[in-house]
Amino acid sequence: MKTIEDRDAAPPQAAPLPPVGAAPVWPGWIVATAICVRFYSRLPIPALPGEADPHAAPDFRTVPRALPFAALVIALPGALVLVAAGGAGFGGLLSATLAVATLAVTTGALHEDGLADSADGLFGGRTPERRLEIMKDSRLGSYGALAMALALLLRVFALALILDRAGPLPAAGAFVVVAVLSRLSGLHLLAGMAPARAAGASAAVGRPSLRTAWLASGIGLLLAGGLALTFRLPLAGLGLGLMLLALNALLVRRQCRRLIGGQTGDIAGATQQLDEIVLYLGFALMLGAGLP
Question: Looking at the 3D structure of the chain, how many domains does it have?
Answer without folding.
Answer: 1
